[in-house]
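anyone seen this seq b4? input:
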Amino acid sequence: MTVKEKSQTLAQQLLAKRYLASLKENPEQYIGVELEFPIVNTLGNKTDVLVAKALFKYLQEVEEFIAIKLDEDGNPVQLQHEINKDQIVFELSYNTIEFAFEKAKTIQEVERRFNHYLSIIQPFLREKQHQIEGRGLHPYWRINNNQPVKIDRYKMLIQFLQLAEKNTNRQFHNYPDYGTFICGNQVQLDVSRDNYLKVINAMNKVEPAKAYLFANSIFDGENWDTTISRDIFWEDSMHGYYQENVGVNPKAFINEQDFLDYLAKTALFYVYREEEILYFDPIRVEDYLAKEKIAAYRLDGTKQDIKPQEEDLKNHRSYHFQDLTTRGTIEYRSVCTQPLNKTFVPIAFHVGLHHNIEELEEYLAQNNYFDFSKENPKELRRQYSKKHLTESELEKIKQYSLDLLTISKRGLIDRGKREEIYLEEIMNELGKC
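predicted toks r here
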């Protein structure tokens, strides 16, 4: 066996240990929700980061939040609720807030906590001419201070993305700080060793409908023909240096080995050496351990050669839209932040389909709109997120979306938690079209 082959085999073994070992045979079903929102100046000026920082201090005074992470200046940047363990954090910049909810049994449980936090946060911000808004892109990205939160991991992330400016191997967009102004709506749902591939394959084929139903990030900085600029920001950045690292899977996985082969083509781009974080040009996981040394960057810009170690794979994270996590869940991460009154619609859509996966699989195999043996879900998502669709495209995607919403609704009804109410409005709107 060659050094390269040994590296590939070991990489797959380590990835299997990292991602598959935590999968249970019959896991209890929970819902894990993460919501990102821009903090917007209502007068049309840039976000005042002093207001954002003051909000986090205020939350500790009026609610049972404690600071579990501070920035270099001593400002709280990650809060945790002492009782329910929800977290509120700055997402990469001080212009964006994220709510990371502790796992729950029902969508309503998460929505109640979210509305409670919002009832505290919005009045505080509005007194200072700011508010949280349901947008997939910060409207004032152009004039904001888009510097990263002053912690090492976020500084590293921006510096890593800025490597695109030096990289001549492929064409990247000109916004390496995009992570400071794009916002997403994400949910994690439990999967088992038996069904995780089935779920990934089926939900991958739902992407064209999600592009149509939940697009909310038109970018005014470029003439991109898409209503979901976040896809371009991800895919045409250093995160998308290898196309296998990000976005929609181009095909269904045949078996577990096929999945591990694909995962091994994703990238590593940073490690820790003692307490220090270092980053480098992306290296495929399957090639990583065969390297004798890697030229890495410190945060101060100086270089240091490092020797790859097996434990470096604990820093691995891919950016797939159907992402298997180390917690035995699939994280769905292709949806833009929604208008505030529609925040929990995509959450319910995912939960219902996830619960009703058998019917979803049957439908996808015989649906009248897309032949997935010939059509690529990645390309279909891009096609159906265009700003203007033809009449026949519109008819096709509306019917496909309505069918999927119906399957999801049946799944929610079967769950017996009355969560189907979240889909009523969107189904009525689509039915009238």
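The two ends are 60 Å apart (CA to CA). The longest strand covers residues 31-41. kinda curious what u guys think
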